[in-house]
């Protein structure tokens, strides 16, 4: 099935109970992906670091790899929603259009006149053209011709960005996260990704499918990224705190989840503040209801600060060993760590290539990059079924199957 056919089939509203996500591994019903598009063509050796890519991907191949990823999910009965389709649909609402235009036009960069010209241009184009501009960005050379002189236009290089592209939209995990039947619009730490949440925000606000969806983490002030949020079990969240999510982000997310009754325990987990471990899900993902795959180098030194509700406030304990705190909060004897037993160099290489970043389709069934041969073999030895996808190009953005997916509906665990 092509992406084109799939999009025309995605219904605006689905009958039945409201979608919800209470775990990392409950059978996956619906997932949000973003098929990478022209925004990846904006990457050059001069801007790729700033745009958080480690190279310049071959875009056609990245799209093929992504289509194959989506197809693997569909073959397992998962409904795949594509972000661009949802965005176009949402932008049919005038309020969404205003919000979208507002998010794209940066007066500090453009100056008042050019900003006005861009605003009126973007307000006049079709929803699809506006969606493209919002995702792909615009260079100065692509701005509409305008009357009168513009110093800003004259002095910028034609290839400078008037509206920044969003190549990291690919990683839908980070810009929104479902907890129970609510969705939280996150607050992304890096300037290159900041505007992504304007798009997820307007999708959930104006796409008819989400008309009844409530919000979590309404404040979305301090940085919290979805890659740091793990739903270990119903009512139990782990939040990585490191390069992206800050202590303030973890605290306010925890407070709001506890106050809303979406969680009874939130484990704040410090992780090393560096690119290789930018999110908790780069070192640890769940592969079964009581099992995780974890980067061996962090296994014995992951700690957690358990946060629980206490009257109107919270109590904070710890630090305590993560695995023990998690098992206790989850009400199980032990949270198993799949013993990858890898030598440190192989482990480091496969961690970098997102070997620990798996997406569970059901308990004991995960999608993983094929290149992480050793980690995948150990998962299979431990009884986890691995659906392999290729990610030679997708991986240049440093994200694996979990990063590239935002579950919207999972069945309850029995
Ligand atoms: N959940 C994740 N691990 N996401 C990976 C995001 C990768 C992206 N290039 C970034 O640097 O932000």
Automatic annotation (TrEMBL):
Pathway: Amino-acid degradation; L-arginine degradation via ADI pathway; carbamoyl phosphate from L-arginine: step 1/2. It is found in: Cytoplasm. This is Arginine deiminase. Belongs to the arginine deiminase family. The gene is arcA. Residues 1-21 are annotated as: Disordered. Its main location: cytoplasm. GO terms for biological process: L-arginine deiminase pathway. It comes from the Bacteria. InterPro entries: Arg_deiminase. The active site is at residue 403. Keywords: Arginine metabolism, Cytoplasm, Hydrolase. GO terms for cellular component: cytoplasm. Its EC number is 3.5.3.6. Gene3D superfamilies: Arginine deiminase (1.10.3930.10), L-arginine/glycine Amidinotransferase, Chain A (3.75.10.10). It catalyses: L-arginine + H2O = L-citrulline + NH4(+).
């Amino acid at each position: 099935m092509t992406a084109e056919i799939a999009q025309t089939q995605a219904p605006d509203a689905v009958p039945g109970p409201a979608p919800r996500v209470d775990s990392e591994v409950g059978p996956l019903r619906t997932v949000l992906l973003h098929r990478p598009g022209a925004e990846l063509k904006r990457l050059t050796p001069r801007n790729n670091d700033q745009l958080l890519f480690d190279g310049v991907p071959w875009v056609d191949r990245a799209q093929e790899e992504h289509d194959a990823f989506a197809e693997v999910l569909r073959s397992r009965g998962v409904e795949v929603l594509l972000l661009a389709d949802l965005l176009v649909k949402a932008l049919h609402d005038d309020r969404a259009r205003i919000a979208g235009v507002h998010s794209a036009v940066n007066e500090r960069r453009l100056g008042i006149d050019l900003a006005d010209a861009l605003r009126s241009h973007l307000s006049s184009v079709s929803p699809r053209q506006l969606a493209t501009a919002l995702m792909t960005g615009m260079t100065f050379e692509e701005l509409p011709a305008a009357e009168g002189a513009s110093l800003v236009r004259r002095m910028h290089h034609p290839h400078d960005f008037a509206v920044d592209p969003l190549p990291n939209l690919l990683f839908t995990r980070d810009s929104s996260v479902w907890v129970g039947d609510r969705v939280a619009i996150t607050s992304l730490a890096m300037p290159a990704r900041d505007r992504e949440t304007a798009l997820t925000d307007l999708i959930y606000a104006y796409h008819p499918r989400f008309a009844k969806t409530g919000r979590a983490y309404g404040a979305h002030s301090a940085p919290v990224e979805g890659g740091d949020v793990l739903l270990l079990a119903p009512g139990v969240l782990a939040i990585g705190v490191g390069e992206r999510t800050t202590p303030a982000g973890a605290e306010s997310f925890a407070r709001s989840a506890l106050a809303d009754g979406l969680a009874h325990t939130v484990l704040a987990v410090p992780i090393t503040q560096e690119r290789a471990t930018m999110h908790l899900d780069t070192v640890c993902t769940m592969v079964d209801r009581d099992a995780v795959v974890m980067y061996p180098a962090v296994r014995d030194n992951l700690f957690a600060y358990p946060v629980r509700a206490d009257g109107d406030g919270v109590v904070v304990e710890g630090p305590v060993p993560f695995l023990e705190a998690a098992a206790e909060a989850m009400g199980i004897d032990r949270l198993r760590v799949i013993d990858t037993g890898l030598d440190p160099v192989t482990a480091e290489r496969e961690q970098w290539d997102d070997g620990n970043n798996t997406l569970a389709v059901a308990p004991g069934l995960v999608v993983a990059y094929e290149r992480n041969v050793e980690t995948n073999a150990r998962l299979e030895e431990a009884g986890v079924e691995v659906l392999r996808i290729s990610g030679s190009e997708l991986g240049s953005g440093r994200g694996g199957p979990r990063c590239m997916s935002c579950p919207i509906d999972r069945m309850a665990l029995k």
